[in-house]
Amino acid sequence: MFSSRLPLAVEYARILATDGVVKGLIGPREVPRIWDRHIMNSAVVAPRVPENSSVADIGTGAGLPGLVWAIARPDLRVSLVEPLLRRTTFLDETVEALGLDNVSVVRARAEDVDETYDVVTARAVAALDKLGRWCLPLVSRGGVLLALKGRTAQAEVDTATATLHRLGAKTIVVATYANGDVPTTVVEVTK
After folding, report:
1. Distance from the Cα of residue 169 to its chain's centroid
2. Buried b (16+ CB within 10 A) or exposed e, 38-49
């Protein structure tokens, strides 16, 4: 998955397990599950992102999935969008420690971002109808929203379909990506 950049992923996991816990971005109970529940859960979706894409990770928190994608895919230009100062400080420090030149940290709410991106993503941020209102305006025409969701993804799609279409959605698909025993479910909304 990470190829020659595996050492960067290992270092990111170490940062999450130490500074991420101390700064309240990852709960201490999550440390044993950092690889399967967080890093690989994010990484398995990276191949879905078109080559050389601009990516915005909305409400990125500790950098999931955006930092993982930036590590796995140096061809991507990733903007980590997060409104909280303590989180953006953590992200700035982490990006610098990892030496990632394809990542920028943006301290803002999604509604205040005035750029568009080929791919917009979010993981565990909000219900799909609300997420669509925040994210779809940031998706370039022909681009895609990749919302990492759980088992309730199809129910969220059923509830949010009308809203997503009003916001410019052309297609809405629930896809599953393999990650060992725990699949990653993604709602893919093409604009």
Report:
1. 19
2. bbbbbbbbbeeb
Q: Which structure tokens are listed for 40?
A: 């690989």
Residue 184, classified by CB atoms within 10 Å of its CB into exposed (0-12), middle (13-18) or buried (19+), is buried
- Predicted TM-score (pTM) of this structure: 0.95
- Whole-number Cα distances in Å, 16 to 69, 125, 171, 179, 188: 15, 19, 35, 20, 27
Mean pLDDT of successive 10-residue stretches along the chain, which has 191 residues? 94 97 94 92 94 97 97 98 96 98 97 97 89 96 95 92 95 88 89 95
Q: Looking only at Cα atoms, what is the longest distance across the chain? A: 44
In CATH, which superfamily holds the domain spanning 3-190?
Vaccinia Virus protein VP39 (3.40.50.150)
Domains of the chain, by residue range, sit at 3-190
Here the tokens at position 83 are 């409104």
